[in-house]
Amino acid sequence: MKDLFGKAILDYQTNNSPEDLITETTISEQDEMSVAYLFRSYQEMPLLEQKALALAHGKVLDIGCGAGSHSLHLQNNLNLEVISIDISTNAIDACKLRGLKNVHIQDILEMDSLSLVHKFDTILLLMNGTGIFGTIKNIPQYLQKLKSLLNINAQILIDSSDIIYMFDEDEDGSYTVPANGYYGELEFSVTYKGEKEDPFPWLYLDYNTLQNAALANGLQCELIIEGEHFDYLAKLYI
User: Fold this and answer.
1) Which of 2, 15, 107, 205 could pair covalently with 130 via S-S, beta carbons 3.0-4.6 A apart?
2) Is this prediction's pTM over 0.90?
C-alpha cells in the first residue's frame, strides 16, 4: 500500500504542503475530503463520536486511530490510559508528533491479547468502524478477535451507516440493490497529490446486520444513538 491517507495526515502535521484527499467508491463519484477534518477537536466532532468518547472508560484501545484526535481527547482531557493502533506508518508518526504516548503500527488481527500489556475495558472503532471488516464474510474473525481482547464488563463502541439510501428507490419504497452480495460491501479508493491508492474493500453495515453478526459471535449489541443521516453508534459486549 502507498499509505496515501497516512501521507496526507503526516503532511498536515508537519506543514508539508498538505492537499485535499480525493475519495471514491464503487457507488459514489469522486469527493474531496479536507485533511484538516481528521485533526478536529472534540467540539468539532459529530455528536455520535462525542457520545462514544463520553462512554469510554478504563483501559482503551483505539483501532484505526488515524490522526489520533479521539485518542488525544481521551488521553489529555479524560486522563484515560489509551493504546492507539493503525496500519499506517505515516499516521502513527503524526500521532507521536501530536503527543500520543502509547501508539503502535499494528493490524488488529495480528494483535495478541498479551502483546500490549493486557486486555481492554473499551475498544473504539470510529469513523465507520465496520469498514475494517472489509466484507461480510470477514465479520466473524474480526468480532472473535475483538471479543478476545475484552476484559470482564468491557465494551466495543463501533459506528457505521446504513447506505441503502444511496440506491434507487422504487414506487413501493423498496430499493434496487446488487443481487450478488451485501449492498454495504464497497471498493474504496484514495488519491492524494496526483497519486492513486489501489482500491480496497470497505464495509458499511446496517444496524440489524451488525446486531445479528454480534449475536452469532457471542456478543450482545445495543443501539446507543442514531445520527442525522443513516449513521449510528452501537455498543457490543459479552
Assistant:
1) 205
2) yes
* Annotation: CATH topology of 4-163+178-237: Rossmann fold (3.40.50)
* CB 66, CB 35: distance < 8 Å: no
Per domain, the residue ranges of the chain are 4-163+178-237
Question: What pLDDT score does 221 carry?
Answer: 98
Lowest mean pLDDT among 43-52, 149-158, 159-168, 170-179: 170-179
Is residue 187 a contact partner of residue 200, using CB atoms and an 8 Å limit? yes
Q: Output phi, psi for 45, to 5 deg.
A: -75, 150
Cα–Cα dist 142/149, whole Å: 11
Phi, psi of 90 (to 5 degrees): -65, -40
pLDDT in tens, 78-121: 999 999 999 999 999 999 999 999 999 999 999 875 455 579 99
